[in-house]
Specification:
The chain has six helices and no strands. By secondary structure, the protein is mainly α.
Length: 132
């Protein structure tokens, strides 16, 4: 019954309107996120952009995207590179703290043996424990 009252083109139009609405909010959130993340402009300029986007939403968002679109992409790329660099640094520090496995333990034991801190029997014991 319901399908007869709601033709196919109306379904397509409703889907189009719904996705346009979702995309609109996505763009609005992207603009606000970029606006509040920026460090190259002061608070007064941020407030002016914010008021423009709130008072004239479509015009404000489109003007912001046209005037700041390239810089938004550059800022997003810089942020992604910074996050990647921080993650790589974190992984390297965690991997270094993990000890590096048997080869690292044997190397440390060899350094202790060479410095005279341990005897040959202690070195052999540490080597066997690392290889086990």
């Amino acid at each position: 019954m319901l399908a007869a009252d709601y033709p196919f083109l109306d379904v397509l139009w409703t889907m189009f309107v719904f996705f346009a609405w979702v995309i609109w909010f996505w763009m609005l959130i992207a603009v606000f996120g970029d606006l509040f993340r920026r460090r190259d402009i002061g608070g007064g300029t941020k407030v002016l952009w914010f008021v423009l986007v709130i008072v004239l939403p479509y015009l404000g968002v489109f003007v912001y995207l046209i005037s700041q679109g390239r810089q938004m992409g550059e800022r997003n790329a810089e942020q992604a590179h910074a996050q990647r660099r921080d993650f790589d640094t974190y992984v390297k520090t965690v991997a270094a703290d993990a000890g590096g496995g048997a080869a690292s333990e044997i190397e440390k034991a060899k350094q202790l043996l060479d410095s005279g801190a341990i005897s040959q029997e202690e070195y052999d014991r540490l080597k066997q424990r690392a290889l086990a």
